[in-house]
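Quick start: load a record and inspect it. Here is Arc-like DNA binding domain-containing protein:
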Amino acid sequence: MRRDPQINIRLPQDLKDAVQNMASDNKRSVNAEIVAILLDAVRKHELSNQSQSSSETQLKTINCLYEREILEEIAKLAAENAVKLERNEKGKK
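Running the structure step on this input writes:
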C-alpha cells in the first residue's frame, strides 16, 4: 500500500467538474489527473526560473562587456590626450 502524503483541498464545483472531465478524457483517475496537472505546473515554473536566471546572467555579461569597452575607450582617449599635451609642452620649448 502506498503511503504518499495526502492533502485535502477545496475548489469550486466548476473546477472540480473540469478536472473530472480532463481525467476522463485522459483515461486517468481524478487524483492522477491532479498530480499530472501539478507536475506540469511545477516543471513550467522551474523552466521559467532557469530561463530568467540565464537571461540575467547574459545581461550581466553584456553589461560587463559594455563597461569594459567604455573603460578601454576612456583609457585610449586619456592616452591620446597625454600624447597631445606632451607634444604641446615640447612645442612651447
